[in-house]
Amino acid sequence: MCGIVGYVGPRPSQDILLAGLARLEYRGYDSAGIAVIDDNGSLGMRKKAGKLQVLRDSLEDAALPDGTTGIGHTRWATHGGPTDANAHPHLADDDRLALIHNGIIENFALLKAELEADGVDFRSETDTEVAAALIGREYRRTGDLQEAFRAVVNRLEGAFTLLAVHKDEPGLVVAARRNSPLVIGLGEGENFLGSDVAAFVDHTRRALAIGQDEIVAITPAAVTVTDFAGNPVTPEPFDVSWDAASAEKGGWPSFMAKEVAEEPDAVANTIRGRVQDGAVVIPELDGSDELFRGIDRIIITACGTASYAGMVGKYALEQWARVPVDVELAHEFRYRDPVIGENTLVVSISQSGETMDTLMAVKYARERGARTLSICNTQGATIPRESDAVVYTHAGPEVAVASTKAFVAQITALLLLGLHAGRVRGTVSAADAAAAVADLEALPAKIAKVLADEQAHVTQLAGWMADTRSVLFLGRHVGYPIALEGALKLKEISYIHAEGFAAGELKHGPIALIEPGQPVFVLLPSPRHSALLHAKVVSNIQEIRARGARVIVIAEEGDAAVLPFADEVIRIPLAGALFEPILAVVPLQIFAMALATAKGLDVDQPRNLAKSVTVE
User: Fold this and answer.
1) What 3-state class would DSSP assign to 221?
2) For domain 3-246, is the CATH number 3.60.20.10?
3) Please, are residues 347 and 316 in contact by the beta-carbon 8 Å criterion?
4) What is the mean pLDDT of residues 20-33?
5) CATH superfamily of 255-428
6) What's the mean pLDDT in 512-536?
7) Which of 258, 489, 491, 611 is catalytic?
8) What's the Cα-to-Cα distance from 483 to each of 254, 322, 414, 478, 502, rounded to whole Å?
């Protein structure tokens, strides 16, 4: 969750750090701070609870020493509340060392007791200050920051990225990572560290991915990476595929509005290069045909919105690849002793590639012999590096906490995966595959049509419902996970009660919630694909309408059967059954965004949430 920036080079580090932290605000935080060392070895530190602007104001009132070495941090409170004292950086070694930390040190209480017995006084309630004190103690013994790190990191349990500077070593930032994100940005005569490439993409798009249990030292002229035992490591280079302008609002009222508008491009970019001669061929999976032929089960593991994408993917993989698929919440998966083996493929889904619950599920699956494949939007992230294969979505940077374009890109990647696996396994006919590819390639234009035709209508509808206290969502088949996603979006950014149900479950309990005026969104499947399923959902609509519900139906163009029973109809273009979810979710995203805006809420940074959940 926390944002981390490190810099060494010729430029004023304070400016670099504050700009990097601003680009990481989307991750969610409640305090911010920086530490700077000047060329004379003077260390200055400032940290403040609240938004980054509070720190900026403090620095304008009383500047830190000019320096070209520094570290910066935005914190999401875990140990201790959001106070100035608990904010990062934390100082040690008589205030000669400053340290920042992302993650949770699980054995901090035992280590803290050891340090207190050694006479150390603590100024915060954090686990981070314990790590700072340990490294400070080792620095006094070794006089070398890298050696001090190496002596401490193996004593720490849990997840952590640590960055530190010491006034005796200006021009040096040392970092370590275990189960928490860290990347290096390579500049000309300067180098960067960040929890995300967004921290430095304004200055360089050349990057190095840091692996598990590795220590990195950066100076203006060099980057050195070793494992925790001190053995040299050659990190994996990559180029960031987007520039700083991609992560700017560009005139949109919010990042979420911008990212919804970018959904046609996100889907098109995810498809690009993966259709050859009318068939889906994913180049990243070249050489894995035997894997797909040999699997007898697929498990999709993810959290939140990504898990709903996985539920849509289950329908596609089972229909086209003819292999049973289970969808598991990552935070439950490894704690129930699941039955997996060498013929199981575990597919993980994560926008950031750093979702800790999902990362732990991937590691668990690999330890038990399963093959692993990740669907991810972020280059250089941990989950793809821990997986046997990766299919990148190409949605571009997603800054708003509530996922929109990443979600439709994830579904697109799963559709591609289903068609690729079906082709390799010989379980989808050429005719069916060609029809599916045609539907797939038509999606960007159809999403654009939904945005053009329905955005004003849905926004007006949300304005009328600004005082609504509860909204229900119903769907069947692939509409069910979209109902779940519609409810989640509304919860995330509007802070009102919302629930998604499989429409067939209505009569088994949820219909008790229906009372006069209760708004209910219904995702109506196309009668072209299943007249029976369509009729069943129309019956559901009649049931709730008879009890006074206000019914808003999402239906395909030309479907007139629902008109007598709907208070509002939102139209989506005709599409294949497995492609409808990508179109149907767009009005629900717009509705949640418009309702939150009508309530005067921050749609990009909803309360209590963070973009990237890097603790389990």
Assistant:
1) coil
2) yes
3) no
4) 85
5) Glucose-6-phosphate isomerase like protein; domain 1 (3.40.50.10490)
6) 92
7) 611
8) 24, 25, 19, 9, 8
pLDDT at 292 over 90: yes
Q: Is 611 a catalytic residue?
A: yes
Residue located via tokens 């039955």: 339
- Closest C-alpha to 397, from 579, 265, 253: 265
Average pLDDT over residues 126-151: 96
Residue-by-residue DSSP string for 511-567: GGG--TT-EEEEEPPPTTT-HHHHHHHHHHHHHHHHTT-EEEEEEETT--TTGGG-S
Residues in the chain, total = 616
Res. 420 pLDDT band, cuts 50 70 90: very high
Q: Indicate the pairing of strand 519-523 with strand 275-276.
A: unpaired
Q: First-to-last CA distance in the chain?
A: 11
Amino acid at 86: N
| Marked catalytic residue, from 2, 47, 167, 491 | 2
Q: In angstroms, what CA-CA distances link 93 with 134, 168, 177, 572?
A: 9, 11, 22, 63
Is residue 2 annotated as a catalytic residue, yes or no?
A: yes
> Quick one: pLDDT band at residue 563, thresholds 50, 70, 90?
confident
Give this prediction's pTM.
0.81
Q: Measured between alpha carbons, how far is residue 415 from residues 50, 309, 390, 579 in Å?
A: 42, 10, 15, 8
Domain spans of the chain, in order of start: 3-246, 255-428, 451-606
